[in-house]
Each structure stands twice: as C-alpha cells, then as structure tokens.
Amino acid sequence: MTVDSSQVYFSAEHEAFRRSVRAFLDEQIAPHAADWDRNREVPRWAWLAFAADGLLGLNHPRSAGGAEKDFFHSVVFLEELGRTGFGGVRFAVALHSYMATSYLASGGSSDLRRRYLAPAVAGKKIAALAITEPQAGSDLTGLAATAREEGGLLIVDGEKRFIVNGGFADFFVTAVRTDGPPGSTGHSNLSLCVIDRASDGVRIVPNDCVSWRACAMADLSFGGVRVPEANVIGRRNSGFTQIMKNMQLERLAASITAIGDAAHCLDLTWRFLSRREMFSTTLAAKQVVRHQMAELLTELEAARQLVYHAAWRYARDPLSITECSMAKLKATELARIVAEECQHLHGAEGFREGSHIVRIVQDAQAATVAGGASEVMRDIIARSGYEER
Ligand SMILES: Cc1cc2nc3c(=O)[nH]c(=O)nc-3n(C[C@H](O)[C@H](O)[C@H](O)COP(=O)(O)OP(=O)(O)OC[C@H]3O[C@@H](n4cnc5c(N)ncnc54)[C@H](O)[C@@H]3O)c2cc1C
C-alpha cells in the first residue's frame, strides 16, 4: 500500500537511482539482515558491496572517492535503506556515511581524508561516532573525556557509551575536552579527534542494546590513548560548533530512514491483514482496520513531505536546525506509533520473540532517543519558534 509522493523533489535520474538501490538492497542486503541482527554484525563483505555500488560516499568529495551527488540521492538511498525494515544495518550504514565520516568530509585535513575518509568511502574502514558518556547524553556540557597535550601527542582518557558500530569500527570520531582545567564543563573547549581502534589503551565492551542489534553497539573506554595531534578534526576547541552543524545531517538522516521504515511496516502489516481471515472475511476488509491504516498512511505522507522539505532546506543551508529537528521529531515519533499500532494489529503474532514486527518496534523506539530525544527536539523547536524570532 503506497501513496505516489509528489515529483517535486525527484528527477528521472533520482527515480532510476531508486530502482537500482532497491534492487541492490533486495538482492544483496535484505536476505542476510536477520542473520546479521542475530550475530550483531554487518560483515566486511557487505560494506565492500555497499561501496562497490558507490553508496558509502554519495555526497562525499570526489578527492576521497565520493560521488558528490546532490542531496536527494542520499534521500533516496536512506529512504530505501529504511524500507529494508532492519534498524541494525540501517543505522550501521547511515551512521558511517552521514554521521561519523561527515565530520571528516566537512572539517578534516587532507591528511585525515586520505587516511580515514577515503578508506571509509571504499568500505575498507568502518567509522563510529563517540560522543555520549555515562554522565552526558542530551546535555553535552557534561562531557568529561579529556585529551591533554604531551610531547606533540594528545593523551585521551574517558568513557563513551552506546556507540553504534563500536564492535567492529576501525576508527572513532570522538568528542574530547582539549584545554581548560580538570573537570571543566561547557561548550568552549570541546574538540573532535579520530582515534584508531588499534591504539593501545582502547577498550571495547559490547553493549547488549535490544535495538539496532546488527550495528554491534559498544561502550568504549580510553585509558591514556596516544593520539597524533594531526588526528584533530578542524580547529582545536571547535568541537561544539562542528557537532551542532553535523547533528543536523544526523537528525535528517534519522528522519529519512524513519519514513522508509514506517512505509515498510505499513506494507507488511497490510499484507498480514489481507491474509488473516476471521468472521467470514479478512481483517483488511474490516472498516475499523481500514480506517486505522488510512489514518497511518495519511500521517506518513504528511511526515514524508515534512522530511523532504527539511532535506530541501538542508541542501541549501546545512544549519536548518528547526526543519531538521521537526523532521526528526515527526518522522521518528510517527515510525514508533506506526510500529506499535501495527504490532497490535498482528495480534499475538506481534509478540513473538525475534519476529520481524517485534524488531521493527524495538528499532523504531530507539530512534526517538538516539541522536537527540524527542523532548530535546521539542525544546529546540519551541526556542526557535518563539524565543529566537
Ligand atoms: C540505539 C541508540 C544508538 C546510539 N548511538 C550513539 C552513537 O553512535 N554515538 C553516540 O555518541 N551516542 C549514541 N547514542 C546515545 C544517544 O545520542 C543518547 O542516548 C541521547 O543523546 C540521549 O542521551 P541519554 O541516553 O544520556 O539520555 P538523557 O540525556 O539522560 O535523557 C533521558 C531522557 O530524558 C528525557 N529528556 C532529555 N532531555 C530533556 C529535556 N530537555 N526536557 C525534558 N526531557 C528530557 C528524554 O526522554 C530522554 O530520553 C545512541 C543511543 C541509542 C538509544
């Protein structure tokens, strides 16, 4: 059950790209995604397959092997990735390309791009983004990991939590405090640096998060890790500005995958309702059920148009904070509601451990917290809508 969305944003080239991405995902990714969830891993060959189709660097610079396509190619890719219905592989890849390596593309030196971005676009190195800490999630002023200077190196100490791709990433784009007195807080002395997984003092502990299993969530601890000064991304102490800028892309990417996910969930539920017979008819023929599905489909179309609009704004101004926050709020909350209502419509089948619909619900719930909880999105929207006018 689909609504033909307006052709305002997509050209014939985008639609041809959509067909090729969908075929790639159907043939090479979806058949394995349940196994990857069980094993908590997206195997190396899959990263190479994404890269071989040019899907890990759609907007990244050509000098790093990227395709420098317009942003609506990424909208197509992320929406189709969402349509696979597997949060694990969806976020493993989205985080790699749109959340971690985006810092290297926008602020990394040519040396960092050569050592980390180019291999990441080629699928040879996998990226993770390490910001959240035990005492700092929504409020980044509490970040405590430090990088002190010693003999031309940075010595990093600290803890990171809930790191997507943490179990198999080759490098971590990490937020640290570079200057200031011990125990300092606030935004002013945050920096971003690349930490190699192979460095001495990096400890990786699996985090058994019930959602997005294939992305091998992990907690990290850095104990006296020696990081070359050249691994700092952009200017020292410009970390907060960089996070605020890249966060918009992260939130937009989350919103795009969420609408793909919700569309997939409605499709599979409609198929279930059409097969499920009772009281001499099918569930899909019951008016109450049809109306419920029609409401959800309408809400999805409204969210989709908001997300496309935010993408259009983002392509013109990467600091479209209000639009990206609205898109993240609306799309991830709607995907959660769709998932939970569809689970109910599956009856008892909706509660079978390890079933596809249970996974969809768990994955959709997590997306309303990761990358900024819905309450934080509402705070941002209220501030920009009323206080900053
Ligand atoms: C599946 C998943 C993947 C993640 N991946 C990564 C990753 O790869 N890298 C990384 O660095 N981090 C990652 N995170 C962490 C994520 O960014 C944080 O969970 C998020 O920022 C919220 O922080 P917190 O969990 O510490 O919750 P807290 O900040 O402690 O907030 C707890 C709850 O309080 C409420 N709340 C928060 N702020 C407000 C407010 N202003 N007003 C009212 N209520 C509020 C919300 O309901 C929120 O869920 C991931 C999280 C999840 C769930």
TrEMBL record:
<dbReference type="InterPro" id="IPR046373">
    <property type="entry name" value="Acyl-CoA_Oxase/DH_mid-dom_sf"/>
</dbReference>
<keyword id="KW-0285">Flavoprotein</keyword>
<comment type="similarity">
    <text>Belongs to the acyl-CoA dehydrogenase family.</text>
</comment>
<dbReference type="InterPro" id="IPR050741">
    <property type="entry name" value="Acyl-CoA_dehydrogenase"/>
</dbReference>
<dbReference type="Pfam" id="PF02770">
    <property type="entry name" value="Acyl-CoA_dh_M"/>
</dbReference>
<dbReference type="GO" id="GO:0016491">
    <property type="term" value="F:oxidoreductase activity"/>
</dbReference>
<dbReference type="InterPro" id="IPR009100">
    <property type="entry name" value="AcylCoA_DH/oxidase_NM_dom_sf"/>
</dbReference>
<feature type="domain" description="Acyl-CoA dehydrogenase/oxidase C-terminal">
    <location>
        <begin position="237"/>
        <end position="384"/>
    </location>
</feature>
<dbReference type="InterPro" id="IPR037069">
    <property type="entry name" value="AcylCoA_DH/ox_N_sf"/>
</dbReference>
<feature type="domain" description="Acyl-CoA oxidase/dehydrogenase middle">
    <location>
        <begin position="128"/>
        <end position="223"/>
    </location>
</feature>
<dbReference type="InterPro" id="IPR036250">
    <property type="entry name" value="AcylCo_DH-like_C"/>
</dbReference>
<dbReference type="Pfam" id="PF00441">
    <property type="entry name" value="Acyl-CoA_dh_1"/>
</dbReference>
<dbReference type="Pfam" id="PF02771">
    <property type="entry name" value="Acyl-CoA_dh_N"/>
</dbReference>
<dbReference type="InterPro" id="IPR009075">
    <property type="entry name" value="AcylCo_DH/oxidase_C"/>
</dbReference>
<dbReference type="InterPro" id="IPR006091">
    <property type="entry name" value="Acyl-CoA_Oxase/DH_mid-dom"/>
</dbReference>
<protein>
    <submittedName>
        <fullName>Acyl-CoA dehydrogenase family protein</fullName>
        <ecNumber>1.-.-.-</ecNumber>
    </submittedName>
</protein>
<dbReference type="InterPro" id="IPR006089">
    <property type="entry name" value="Acyl-CoA_DH_CS"/>
</dbReference>
<keyword id="KW-0560">Oxidoreductase</keyword>
<dbReference type="InterPro" id="IPR013786">
    <property type="entry name" value="AcylCoA_DH/ox_N"/>
</dbReference>
<keyword id="KW-0274">FAD</keyword>
<feature type="domain" description="Acyl-CoA dehydrogenase/oxidase N-terminal">
    <location>
        <begin position="11"/>
        <end position="124"/>
    </location>
</feature>
